Amino acid sequence: MGHLMSSILLSLLLTSSVIYPKKSDDILTNPGIGFTELQRIVSNEPTNPFYGDKPVLSYPDTSTVYYRWYWDQLTTADNPNLDEAMLERKIDNVLKDAASVNKKVVIRFMALRGKGDPIYDVDVNKDSSGIPCWLVDELYGHGLNGTSCHLSDEEAVNMFKIPQFIHRSQEFLSTLGQRYDHNKTLLRIDVGMVGTWGEWNLSGYSSKSSLSVGMADNGYKVQDLKPYIDAIVKAFPHTPKVMLGTNKGDYLSYATQKGFGWRVDCLGDWNKGWNHMEDGYPTMISHMTDASTNKYPDMLFNQRWKKSAVDFEICQGSLQDWYSIKNTHRLTYNQVLKTFDFALKQHASLINAKSGAIPKRYQLLVKQFLNKLGYRYQLNQLKVNNVVHKNDYLYIDSTWENVGVAPIYSNYPVTWRLRSANGNIVAYYTSTANIVNWLPADNENVKNPIYVITDKFKIKNISIGEYFLDVGLVEKHTRKAKISLAIDTKLTDDNGKDYVIEMSKKQFNMNNSQQYIEDQNNIGRWREITIINII
């Protein structure tokens, strides 16, 4: 009996192996992380498939596009109903175009245009302040029949507490939610509606006697603004949400307790005197948990990143502006480094860098930053029985690590597949692991957690022979790998064909948009791990 047991153990040792995949230092373009596009689908491709301006070749590849629409862009001047043609031309087309190249969309809906901001949309009255003229007429008695649609400063400041405006906003959001809440291309809603540009302040409109442009310093209590938060929760119950914070706004902590993520503007503001990096952000973050000044303190605010996203938008027009010697607000190299470090310490996922040029001086910094931003999944080790009898089990023990700074917020199941030498896929096996739970370390001084998955899969209806074992993180209910892993092994596509990253942007012809779309839909994300011999 002892001899038999020894033989079995020896057989297992001879047919099992431990694999340590080589780690990758490549920038990974994955859903919901990285730099975003602003008001365009892609900016760095010479093909320019969706954008009629010169490409910004220094901008990194992106997975997420960020769009904003004012209320008056989605309805005619005299009809309260949302306009079907406008919705199709604007929101529907953006979602369709983004989906065609495997990108996600973040949307903000707004009600108050910046004072003096130009209006390019031909659907909008040239004197409009952001809300449709029919609503201006309902609120203030002008805007139709040849009267001006423009809001005075006082009208703009007081608008957000008027019951009729709140009611109409709830209707507006509800209709949008019915249309878009279940759209899988919609990554999240950036909750606007309140304030200038939907940014929860009254910049350009507040009285000179006000202490600041903040809502609180212009007569607003949190009770006045809660209806907008509650309305977006009701309208978009299935869509993740983020909301902008300010150093006096109790409404953000009210929202984060309802599952919202948070975001802030002006990343990289190091101006002399008061600035966001040294004053605004620390004060805002502190206020979120301060029960002495905040009516809705969120004592778990600093842990919310584990369930909901943190996003930033840069100050100024681009990173090129940060670098420009002619710019009085230019940043030093050390300030750029500290800016990126701050975003990482807050466990950020997305940075709206406004699709602008990135100077050569910052390229390495940006690469290092993008390799930490959001999630980054690394397969460290795999134990597997390489020789399997038909109708027996394939045992896979895999060890994973998230070397980024945030989790992913939607599960992409770990899936193993067996692939023949000619590329035929003979079997898929889906793990029960949920990668949403794969958190990184809380901070840079702590080691990342290690996640060990033990799977076993029955080998049946497969011919005797050798097969490649591949791993991919797939879109739910599909066999399409959507997450690139931070390992350097052979790549294959969803069809089992070899995938080689060899195309240069210079190889494309201008306006060859169909080729770009096809390429984006045939990216290989399956990683070959080892060979399995079925006997």
TrEMBL record:
It comes from the Bacteria. Pfam families: DUF4832. Residues 345-479 form the DUF4832 domain. InterPro entries: DUF4832. This is DUF4832 domain-containing protein. It comes from Photobacterium carnosum.
